[in-house]
Amino acid sequence: MSKAGSSILQGAREALAFAKGDTMGHQVHVPDEVDVKLIRKRLGMSQGQFAKTFGMKLTTIQSWEQRRFQPDPAARAYLTVIEREPGAVFRALGVSEKKPGSSPAGSRPNR
């Protein structure tokens, strides 16, 4: 097997192990709490825009913001990535960034 093939196979094995819960010595940190309202406001989005853009239910966003419920660990991880690297999430999801005063999410930004 080629060096590239071996590397790809090793990466696939590691991804499978990680998916099964083996962090292979890597420490994964998911915050205990996230401030969904703060994240959303920093992006200049309404609750509806935020929910639609990131594939969530509006009622879920409202519940999190009113602190009736706390996001589960997977949602907290996703929200942390949205907070820290929003551009990467927008690119991965194929949507444009929503900035205050700009056109609605989903339209192409002027860059």
Q: How do the SSEs run, as a string of H and E?
A: HHHHHH
**Rg from alpha-carbon coordinates:** 17 Å
| Beta content | under 5%
Would you tell me which CATH topology of the largest domain applies? 434 Repressor (Amino-terminal Domain)
Q: Helicity level, as a percent range?
A: 40-55%
| Distance between the first and last residues' Cα | 44 Å
List the total number of helices. 6
CATH superfamily of the largest domain: lambda repressor-like DNA-binding domains
Name the shape in a single word: elongated
> How many structurally independent domains?
2
CATH architecture of the largest domain: Orthogonal Bundle
Number of strands: 0
What does this structure look like?
By secondary structure, the protein is mostly helical. It has 2 domains: 1-26, no CATH class; 31-111, lambda repressor-like DNA-binding domains (434 Repressor (Amino-terminal Domain), Orthogonal Bundle). The chain is 54% helix and 0% strand. It has 6 helices and no strands. It has helices at residues 3-19, 36-42, 47-54, 58-65, 73-84, 86-93. α3 (47-54) crosses α4 (58-65) and α5 (73-84) packs across α6 (86-93). The chain is elongated. The chain starts with a helix and ends in an 18-residue tail after the last helix. Mean pLDDT is 83; it is low at 100-111.
Topology, element by element:
Layout: H1 3-19, H2 36-42, H3 47-54, H4 58-65, H5 73-84, H6 86-93
Explain briefly what this protein structure is:
This protein has 111 residues and is mainly α. It has six helices and no strands. The chain folds into two domains: 1-26, no CATH class; 31-111, lambda repressor-like DNA-binding domains (434 Repressor (Amino-terminal Domain), Orthogonal Bundle).
